[in-house]
Amino acid sequence: MSVPSSVTRAEAARLLALFEQAGAQRVDCGILQPAEVLLDLYGEDIRGRAYVTQDPSRGEQMLRPDFTVPVVQMHMTGGAEPARYTYAGEVFRRQEDHPERENEYIQVGYEVFDRVDPDAADAEVFALFHTALAPLGLHPATGDIGILMAAVEGLDTSARRRAALMRHIWRPRRFRALLDRFAGRSPVPASRAALLRAEDALADAGPMIGLRSPAEISARIEALREDAQDRPLSEAQVAALDAVLAVRETCPFALERLRDIAVDLPAISGALDRFARRIDALDKRGIDIEHLDFEASYGRTSMEYYDGFVFGFYAAGRPDLPPVATGGRYDALTRRLGNGAEIPAVGGVIRAGLIEILGGGQ
User: What are the GO BP annotations of this UniProt entry (predicted)?
Assistant: First the structure.
């Protein structure tokens, strides 16, 4: 792990000051975070990206992989409404797939909790980041996970299948495999077919190893049998969902294309109305929406708690670098961490060290 330079720390301080001027309250959180919360949110996948340690008294802990989750926890335990927060500090990510990238770096963020006008809040965060990063000449990208979620919710299939697809929206290859299986495009693996045919699937299973009980395993097998009886997704539904996933245009043209698709997939109409309001809000903030890119699939591989608007800023000609900034809406996260309470929320983070690399440090 490398130590962030004085230039990077100065850039982080500059961004903090900018966000404070925008009305944000500065907050902080511990470098060690309880692993249980993050595992509950992300599943075991998080272990491949985070540094995990065991504390004798506190149990399993993780070096802080980001600030958003602890900031949401802090707000949901008694934050005022509306609220804006900013923070800066080290986060830690394992980089086995990209060993050239830093595994310790400074993250500066801005988060908005405001239920009055979520679309205006989306535009506020994006425009603030756009201004903060303008000297670097970065390429902005946007998307909307909420449109994909609405499309999945509108599929004419069982609640179990919709839940499975929803769970894997952020894992495109797994999502595609499930979609093909539910549409009858891919054959059932021979091992699963044999399992479903067996009168007593556990008869010759041998000793039980692992955490699942025989009852839990039997329930899972029964669920698979019920799923096998569901009728396949129609080709028309799959084609409409594929058409949504393929949309890649500037914002106004993307909205027009998605409106056409909504004729066959009306479940996305509400999400498209929100998209239209966001475009108007961005335009009022001075963003050139006619040239702002929108990609329906954007954010599916790296933004697991976002459930609406998503965005990123990239250095053109530097595919070796991660995005300089990312962000989006995460209303569902506030429900997960709010013990029954919830509030619309949107925010984003900037990697201050990349600004130094790109020659933009002050």
Answer: histidyl-tRNA aminoacylation
